[in-house]
């Protein structure tokens, strides 16, 4: 018999320490991925690349002996002599202050593939409050136990059920027990009566013949675990992307908004199979467009945010029944909006949009080099702050530089505990 250890943890390793080490290494890699992605373009993120983590973070925990008296034989050296004080382990490490001075230690560098890089970046992200509602008409199938079968793969043999059936068959057919034959053989060895010996020999031969006729395990006893495909509950979700493309949006602002939506698009298509994405762009009027027009089509004009919210409301009412769909929305704007439009925006949000939405995020974009606090007096930001003060669930963030897109996106869609409310 050959036993092959296929566990993820090799032999002579502490299971708990090994798992703790793997979790720590994964966190370091994820941190390196997020840090390197801040200075990359969206397309560069999708291509993977090289990341580095500190060597110290790769050390695996182990037990060390402290104290006591030990005899050790060390090789000779040309640097120290008897009586010298050796430096403490770790001293002198770090980055050298000048070329040729001090010791340094390289970081652990490795290359991640496209899929590995994106999966690590999106690993702890999710759509907030995703509820399982009506089953989608999708090809999502899972396996479930469906009893036992007399045929199947050897890997699916049910040992317990097989042994139970074999035992029941042996009992029903009165298969002789090995102990019974051993007792008769012991009696035969001590018996001196020839007549009795003949009876014992005949009985032993008959029992052994019956044992051969009734095997310990018969092919009819073997049972295999059976599985059958079953549809799995799939949550249907729709994401509305609302982007301001009016004349007040500079090219830098539009670039920030598009980067945010490109990252959102990658996140949704990679992590969820059944998520509809609706692209709406607006000036003083809104229109539903396709993906290419949303990201690349030119547009300009005045600004009426209520037009985009009204378009979203009409699409929800006509195509996405709130009882069957999880509805999300992400809005990007520079915060400029007509003062006369504030009442319409407030009414649409509080009465039409937010009551049927799982999550609504607002991203305000600013000019390059400006502080995020410089945008606090925009009309739309002030309106949304007032609505939040009244208890309306809105998540609001500001960005003014490319490097802020990834942290803000991660903050909006990071995985939260069930009892934790969505951070706003």
From TrEMBL:
Annotated InterPro entries: UPF0229, vWFA_dom_sf
Region (Disordered): 83-104
Recorded superkingdom: Bacteria
Similarity remark: Belongs to the UPF0229 family.
Protein name: UPF0229 protein SAMN05444159_5919
């Amino acid at each position: 018999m050959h036993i092959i250890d296929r566990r993820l943890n090799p032999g002579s390793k502490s299971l708990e320490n090994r798992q703790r080490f793997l979790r720590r290494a994964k966190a370091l890699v994820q941190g390196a991925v997020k840090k390197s992605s801040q200075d990359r373009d969206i397309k560069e993120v999708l291509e993977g690349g090289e990341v580095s983590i500190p060597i110290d973070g790769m050390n695996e925990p182990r037990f060390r002996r402290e104290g006591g008296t030990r005899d050790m034989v060390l090789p000779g050296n040309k640097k120290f002599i008897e009586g010298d004080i050796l430096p403490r382990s770790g001293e002198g490490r770090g980055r050298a202050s000048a070329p040729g001075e001090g010791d340094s230690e390289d970081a652990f560098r490795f290359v991640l593939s496209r899929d590995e890089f994106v999966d690590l970046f999106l690993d702890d992200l999710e759509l907030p409050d995703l509820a399982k509602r009506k089953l989608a008409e999708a090809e999502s199938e899972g396996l479930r136990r469906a009893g036992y079968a007399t045929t199947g793969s050897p890997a699916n043999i049910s040992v317990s059920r097989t042994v139970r059936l074999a035992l029941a068959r042996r009992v029903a057919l009165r298969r002789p027990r090995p102990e019974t034959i051993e007792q008769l053989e012991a009696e035969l060895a001590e018996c001196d009566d020839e007549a009795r010996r003949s009876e014992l020999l005949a009985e032993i031969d008959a029992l052994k013949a019956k044992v051969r006729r009734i095997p310990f395990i018969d092919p009819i006893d073997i049972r295999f675990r059976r599985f059958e495909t079953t549809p799995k509950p799939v949550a249907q979700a729709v994401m509305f992307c609302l982007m301001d493309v009016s004349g007040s949006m500079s090219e830098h602002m539009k670039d920030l908004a598009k980067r945010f939506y490109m990252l959102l698009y990658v996140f949704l298509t990679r992590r969820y199979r059944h998520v509809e994405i609706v692209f709406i762009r607006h000036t003083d009027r809104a229109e539903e467009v396709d993906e290419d027009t949303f990201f690349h089509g030119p547009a300009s004009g005045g600004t009426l945010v209520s037009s985009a919210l009204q378009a979203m409301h009409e699409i929800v009412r006509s195509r996405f029944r709130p009882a069957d769909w999880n509805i999300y929305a992400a809005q990007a704007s520079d915060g400029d909006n007509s003062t006369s439009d504030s009442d319409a925006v407030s009414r649409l949000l509080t009465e039409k949009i937010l009551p049927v939405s799982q999550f609504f995020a607002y991203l305000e974009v600013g000019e390059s080099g400006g502080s995020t606090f410089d945008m606090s007096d925009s009309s739309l930001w002030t309106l949304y702050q007032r609505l939040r003060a009244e208890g309306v669930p809105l998540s609001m963030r500001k960005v003014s530089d490319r490097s802020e897109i990834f942290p803000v996106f991660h903050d909006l869609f990071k995985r939260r505990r069930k009892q934790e409310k969505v951070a706003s």
